[in-house]
Amino acid sequence: MTMASAEASHRPQKVAVLGAGAAGLVTGRLFHEAGFRVRIFEKTSTVGGVWKYRPEDVMYRSLVTNLPKEIMAFLDTPFDPSLPSFLRHTDVQTYLEGYAKQYDVEKLITFDTEVKEVRPVRRTRGQEGKGAAPYPPGDYTREHGVGAAREKEGPEGAEGEESQAPVWQVTVVRQAGGSVAGACEGVPESEVFDAVVVCNGHYQVPHCPDLPGLREHYRGRVMHSRDYDHPEALRGLKVLCVGYRASGTDIAREVAQVASEVHVVDRRLSKMMEDGKEEAGALQRGNIYRRPGLRVFLPGGDGKSAMFEDGSVCTGIDLVLYCTGFQYHVPFLSGGSAFESRPLSPSAPLSDARLLRVEDRAVFPLYQHLFHAFFPSLVFIGLLHSVVPFPLFELQARWALKTLRQPPGSDPPPPSLPPRRRRFQWLEEEKMRQEAAGRVLGRDWFFLGPGQWAYKRLLAREAGCLTSALEEDLQVREGIYNDVSNRRPVFPGGSDAYRRCEYRRVAGGEGWEVEVGGKGSFEGAGEEKGEGARKAQC
């Protein structure tokens, strides 16, 4: 047997990819090109995920990207160069549809098919999915498991626990028009895979934190940004936007064109005012008002009044608009919903294998925010936020690909991953790092922001693909990202003139330029000139 055939014989033959958005498409492509038998399950009838516009879904009608196409693209597939730097959502959807066609990913996708359950089952020879023996029940969100799982562990020092790695039974239901071979509509069908890569996104279940007094005292309308499609329905209203990040900033600006007033709750403001970094005169721009954290909705009166942390009061609020993000929701995995998350004692009896803990907006136990720490053949792509997503998805998929090339249940574990003990230790160390940085572990657990570039280099190193060409590419992307970040408005609802900038990579991949607001000339290239570009005004 040749080395190539030996390696092929050790690869997981079957991998299930859950979701045909950007993360699912790049994952399916890479695994298929590496010789895996890939099936992508998509519950809708199209690729694109969140980028496919439907009035009832999260994408709103007028959305324009807040990152330029020069850094958004996958690593080897640029956007159409004739497009502007900042794209309409339809341009991104067209790009993803073209990506699926270009790399022949469409043939791997089973459309109109909802994944109902993913469960670990015992690995047996010739297993194809029917009558699979379930994995021992236990809480596999802990290093040693809880319950029956403990009985099956191998000796920790010898890393024998890795030899107990399961395979995965995936149960799906075909919806109207679905394409599961031989399946009847609404009838569950199961199939067993060596590995599962979860790419279902995190923009489905709105996160609506409890606001003091809202339920008891507020008598106006309440909605989440997920239900926002266009501003006309808010004409003439006084709107309170709770949240100041991307959706809060952009929706506030758009709504202000038709609303009587828009008040944006920006919880950063209280601290800034305490430190003397913000003056009262900067709190209003047109009919948009910036407010510190919300203290309470007030009883009595018009039933539409709120007090803020600085003691100021806003009356006559017609609509509370949550711009507070989304819950992580993986309903097909045991423990994968915020609505079923509960603390468990070490002796708590379990009837199945509990795989996830969802705490606020954090999902445990994921090593490096990617691999399930107990069962690394269960992989999650794209949970991190405040990032340039498509290249991050690709690098995560490449590390997963390198890891899953190893023999299933290998002992010792794949060389690209440490043993289980170290994987769980990393989680504890990461908690301490985030606490030391003053982060709120739930809300900020998956936040990267500027830290994404170190993480992308880590992914590339672990995947074995951090070449000099990729390093140059990441440097250019990071420089453009920093430039865009410095041009975005600090004031929620402020001007989006930065979206009129046009970016361009310098030939040879060694730098970048930016054309500022139609001035007709490019400025900035690489780090030194890029600094000058950052100081210019769009």
Description:
The protein is α/β, with parallel strands linked by helices and 538 residues long. Helix content is 26%, strand content 19%. A six-stranded mixed sheet has the order 10-18-11-12-14-13, with helices on one face. Strands 3-2-1-8-25 form a five-stranded parallel sheet, covered by helices on one side. Helix 2 (22-33) runs parallel beside helix 9 (389-404), helix 9 packs parallel to helix 12 and helix 13 runs parallel beside helix 14 (526-535). Mean pLDDT is 84; it is low at 1-11, 148-161 and 524-538. One of its GO terms (molecular function) is N,N-dimethylaniline monooxygenase activity. Belongs to the FMO family. It holds the Pfam family FMO-like. Keywords: FAD, Flavoprotein, NADP, Oxidoreductase.
